[in-house]
Design brief:
about 40% helix; alpha/beta
Length: about 525
């Protein structure tokens, strides 16, 4: 369509509903230019994941969809990393993502911080754009990533930044990726040159030039469409279970629980293509795993599956006293505590329930939270050494995490290593039989997390707590350590953290009681 024809369409577009159907169809092919957003890096990366998601999230966004829900690095932490990286480029001018200022400063020969360049179709923002003295008249793009390694998807993102900058009239001859040095040992002071790793990715990015241009043009064309593009299970989909728009994306065959099949990405896709939308409708189970068969059995009967023999063996390993232990930790990119590494999980809180003799009696309850006076790892080790004696059972839900926290804490405070060695054989992982589906309830929907197991077994849940997940606990305490909160806000967060952590350990008490009830009700599990 030529520009004159498209201009006519724009003129009559507001009156489209009054026009004959054939005209409406014609109008639906393209949107007026002013309605089409510039393609950004966020659009580009979303399109890499799922083209349909890109279109829907742009024009029909779900009000309850939070694109940051599963991001582990908060915007404030990313901002802190950007601020720190400025020390690597002290002669750059901060233009706060102003497109006109970016052009003006770059044309004057100075480097730019918080840069932005745009064309009619594309928009890019990046941490730094610098004149490249090695090639006069060209520029270097610098991209900061809140990670400790170079990842494949980083190249795709930088390739888009390079493409958009060149479309805007600024030739790019060098691309640099900055990420965090995982081996940087924080001792109270950050040295930017040691904290960051700078990697030249010019060669890798250049290999993506042709592909990036084609994809960027294609995604912009997608955004210019008036109607939803036709699609079914995008080749980019990691798993339909993660789809943000299943009611649109998978219509008319809206799946039930078929995509909750454990470790069944390919299998569940095959069942779906055959028209099987629910686990209970699966008849062919010969090639499925034990866990998948257990899921299907529970869905078909509507009742939980319990391997009483396994739980009898599990219970036989339990020795009194029983110590139910859980940690909460933070793992910020910029360390908060001396003698720690970037992204290292440092525990700041533990909850401990202790059952001396009677599992159905009232357990003792202890906790410790960072008091801002001593390193919390030291405080935690001192309290746990006081309250946990060797020879009993230390019960955790996924004990690898608690073991690692203790080992790394003892590495920082080695005077506690003898005690830690004395309890090494006392750990028992309560998560293991649930991970193996020796118990499975159809309401679990494939999940084996403590937050899922507790309600299906006991009827209790985390829904009324101020903090409902470990990631939320991590984020909230990091706010306490790094943001200017009032004393009342800090006290409220601390109260919520303690309540959450205490429920984690008390949940294990309740679950172990239920296991004992199962075993008592089936004294001869082999019979």
């Amino acid at each position: 369509m030529n520009s004159r024809g498209f201009s006519i369409l724009k003129l009559i577009y507001p009156f489209r509903k009054f026009l004959p159907e054939w005209v409406s169809v014609l109008l639906s092919l393209k949107r007026p230019e002013e309605e089409i957003p510039k393609l950004t890096k966020a659009h580009f990366t979303t399109g890499l994941y799922c083209e349909y998601h890109l279109w829907l999230n742009t024009y029909e966004p779900r009000p309850d969809f939070d694109p940051y829900e599963h991001q582990y690095i908060s915007p404030r932490q990313k901002s802190a990393l950007r601020d720190l990286s400025q020390l690597l480029y002290p002669n750059t001018k901060n233009v706060r993502y102003s497109e006109s200022e970016t052009r003006r400063i770059l044309n004057s020969g100075q480097g730019v911080r918080s840069a932005c360049l745009e064309t009619e179709k594309f928009s890019m923002k990046t941490e730094y754009i610098l004149p490249n003295p090695e090639q006069a008249g060209t520029f270097e793009i610098v991209v900061l990533k809140a990670s400790t390694s170079f990842k494949k998807q980083h190249i795709q993102e930088i390739a888009f930044q390079k493409f958009a900058a060149q479309e805007a009239g600024f030739p790019v001859s060098k691309c640099t990726l900055i990420f965090v040095n995982s081996k940087f040992f924080y001792q109270g002071k950050i040295q930017p040159e040691e904290f960051f790793v700078r990697k030249d990715v010019t060669a890798e990015t250049s290999l993506k030039d042709k592909e990036t241009k084609e994809l960027a043009d294609s995604l912009y064309d997608l955004l210019s469409r008036k109607n939803r593009p036709a699609r079914y299970l995008s080749r980019m989909c990691s798993h339909p279970r993660n789809c943000a728009y299943p009611e649109v994306c998978l219509t008319p065959k809206i799946p039930g629980d078929i995509f909750t099949l454990r470790e069944g990405k390919e299998e569940s896709g095959k069942f779906y293509e055959k028209g099987i939308l629910n686990l209970k409708d699966i008849q062919e189970t010969e090639n499925l795993t034990h866990r998948q068969k257990t899921q299907i059995q529970a869905s078909q009967t509507g009742k939980p599956f319990t391997n009483h023999k396994v739980f009898a063996e599990f219970l036989s390993k339990i020795r009194y006293p029983i110590y139910f232990l859980d940690f909460e930790s933070i793992n910020p990119p910029i360390p908060v505590y001396p003698n720690s590494y970037p992204f290292q999980h440092v525990p700041f809180l533990f909850s401990l329930h202790v059952v001396r003799e009677d599992l159905f009696g009232e357990p003792e309850s202890f906790y410790y939270i960072d008091d801002a006076v001593v390193d919390p790892r030291k405080g935690i080790l001192e309290k746990l050494e006081q309250w946990i004696s060797p020879g009993g059972t230390i019960l955790c839900f996924n004990d690898k995490f608690e073991r690692r926290c203790l080992e790394e804490s003892a590495a920082a405070f080695p005077e506690h290593k003898p005690w830690l060695k004395s309890i090494q054989d006392d750990f028992v992982d309560l998560a293991k039989p649930f991970w193996e589906y020796d118990y499975y309830h159809p309401d679990q929907k494939g999940s084996t997390s403590l937050k899922t197991i507790l309600p299906v077994i006991t009827g209790q849940s985390y829904k009324d707590l101020g903090i409902k997940s470990g990631q939320m606990a991590n984020s909230e305490f990091l706010r306490v350590k790094t943001e200017p909160l009032s004393d009342s806000e800090k006290r409220e967060i601390e109260k919520n953290l303690i309540q959450y952590c205490k429920l984690d350990t008390y949940a294990m008490v309740l679950i172990l009681r239920k296991i004992q009830e199962w075993v008592r009700s089936h004294p001869n599990p082999d019979a």
